[in-house]
């Protein structure tokens, strides 16, 4: 497999965690979203992913984009360890939380949107994340065990940790979100979350390395 990734991309990080958890080795091709006006806009990368976004994963003779679609494919073809619970209710809760972050928070504060916002981008990002986290904190109080849904790592957790990193980068006050903070801390102790961390990628700038 070949993963096209950017060290700081939270969507790429989700996929890196899934690959690490499932023990899938891969080659990483960095796509710098800032350098050269954004390497994702090159004709070569557009041919690979017409949405001109990371991540993209070449695997089993196909190329997939969209982090959750990639994780679903990995889950269906390499089911161990599982990232979706067997219980239909818990499975639905995992998907709900993953979608809450992947559709309801992250796209509103991603690089492309912030470029359009201009000077007020930090305030905008803080507001988008805070309103999403207020809802998420409430949801997690009903679903969480050690992790987002019960005591097994799931797709929801793969979305949570990168989003908390975004929140910290934009200096969001995490005080009102004790459940999110507790789960994030527990997940960051796991090896798959450590090796996939933005501070430990081949394309991480020296000053940001762990």
UniProtKB/TrEMBL annotation:
Keywords, in A-Z order: Cytoplasm, Isomerase, Phenylalanine catabolism, Transferase, Tyrosine catabolism
Subcellular location(s) per record: Cytoplasm
Reactions performed catalytically: 4-maleylacetoacetate = 4-fumarylacetoacetate; RX + glutathione = an S-substituted glutathione + a halide anion + H(+)
Domain GST C-terminal residue range list: 87-206
EC number: 2.5.1.18, 5.2.1.2
Pfam families per record: GST_C_3, GST_N_2
Superkingdom, natural source: Eukaryota
Residue ranges occupied by any GST N-terminal domain in the UniProt entry: 1-82
Primary site of residence: cytoplasm
GO biological process terms held by the UniProt record: glutathione metabolic process; L-phenylalanine catabolic process; L-tyrosine catabolic process
Cofactor: glutathione
A Gene Ontology term for the protein's cellular component: mitochondrion
Alphabetized CDD domains for the sequence: GST_C_Zeta, GST_N_Zeta
UniProt family annotation: Belongs to the GST superfamily. Zeta family.
Protein name per UniProt: Maleylacetoacetate isomerase
Organism field: Pachyramphus minor
């Amino acid at each position: 497999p070949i993963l096209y990734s950017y060290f700081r991309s939270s969507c790429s990080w989700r996929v890196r965690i899934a690959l690490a958890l499932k023990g899938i080795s891969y080659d990483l091709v960095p796509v710098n979203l800032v350098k050269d006006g954004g390497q994702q806009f090159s004709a070569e990368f557009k041919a690979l992913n017409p949405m001109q976004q990371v991540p993209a994963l070449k695997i089993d003779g196909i190329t997939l984009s969209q982090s959750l679609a990639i994780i679903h494919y990995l889950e269906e073809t390499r089911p161990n360890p599982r990232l979706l619970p067997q219980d239909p209710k818990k499975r639905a809760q995992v998907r709900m939380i993953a979608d809450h972050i992947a559709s309801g928070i992250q796209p509103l504060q991603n690089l492309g949107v912030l470029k359009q916002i201009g000077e007020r981008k930090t305030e905008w990002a803080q507001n988008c994340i805070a309103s999403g986290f207020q809802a998420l904190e409430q949801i997690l109080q009903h679903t969480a065990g050690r992790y987002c849904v019960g005591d097994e790592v799931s797709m929801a957790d793969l979305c949570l940790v990168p989003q908390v990193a975004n929140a910290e980068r934009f200096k969001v006050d995490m005080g009102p979100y004790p459940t999110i903070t507790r789960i994030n801390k527990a997940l960051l102790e796991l090896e798959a979350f450590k090796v996939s961390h933005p501070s430990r990628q081949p394309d991480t700038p020296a000053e940001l390395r762990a």
